[in-house]
Amino acid sequence: TALFEARELGFAYRGRPDALADVSFTLETGENLGIVGESGAGKSTLLRLMLGLTRPSSGTLLTDGSAFDSRSRSALRAHRRFAQAVFQDPYSSLDPRQSVERIIAEPLRSLGIERARAAVHQRVSAALESVGLPADAAGRYPHEFSGGQRQRIAIARAIVPNPRLLLADEPVSALDVSTRVRIIELLAELGSGESPLTVVVVSHDLGVVAALCQRMLVLENGRVVEQGRTDAVLSAP
Ligand code: ADP
Ligand code: ADP
């Protein structure tokens, strides 16, 4: 069965035309997906549906072949273990009053995965290592880090509960050019190692998608106008 599937998803904000209509796609483990489209095409809305933050107006989401109902608290909780997210701005997404250790440990605590101090600390250290930050970053605070390092902290927080899916919304758009490349390399690495993590990237930048994603999907006015292997979609006339 597929890791994740969207079947004929639709969504409309109150009093507005459809933000998404008839969106269907399948995600297989290890096949990173790029979601591209102009501003207003529906990318962020689709990501929110995939995260369970917003319920579709129509259609179905399936994880590992089972329909996912975000009205159920227990299903939502299970879904947070399944799918984690990284957002565009690493300045606003990290609480400046919390140490890096607390920030990264948050999903472990809130999802009830791990409470024992030593075990939490060990998983935070492992996550820091996976994203290329030194272990002593744990005791420091977000303002002590550059934009790229902050995005690494946000990625560490997302991967610490061992999710199957990592949803990244414009993960490098707020970073300077040289930092972008290295964050893209990190995401590519995370999506190709032994861990069965699959990355979904929303981006307006085709270069990011070409570097990271085996498959891509193009949204236009809330509809999928193209999807398939990245090389095929990018070379289509
Ligand atoms: P993208 O991420 O591709 O820029 P969005 O998903 O943000 O697209 O937006 C899709 C459509 O939904 C746009 O027409 C946008 O104006 C509209 N929209 C987005 N968020 C809201 C909201 N909170 N309330 C009403 N309309 C919204
Ligand atoms: P309002 O606060 O005006 O109801 P919302 O944007 O919160 O507007 O939601 C509009 C509709 O979209 C809701 O009536 C509901 O059916 C659906 N909806 C949005 N988000 C969720 C959600 N997280 N869970 C369930 N339904 C939601």
UniProtKB/TrEMBL annotation:
Keywords: ATP-binding, Nucleotide-binding, Transport. SUPFAM superfamilies: P-loop containing nucleoside triphosphate hydrolases (SSF52540). Residues 4-237 form the ABC transporter domain. InterPro entries: AAA+_ATPase (IPR003593), ABC_transp_ATP-bind (IPR050319), ABC_transporter-like_ATP-bd (IPR003439), ABC_transporter-like_CS (IPR017871), Oligopep_ABC_C (IPR013563), P-loop_NTPase (IPR027417). One of its GO terms (molecular function) is ATP binding. Belongs to the ABC transporter superfamily. This is ABC transporter ATP-binding protein. It comes from Lacisediminihabitans changchengi.
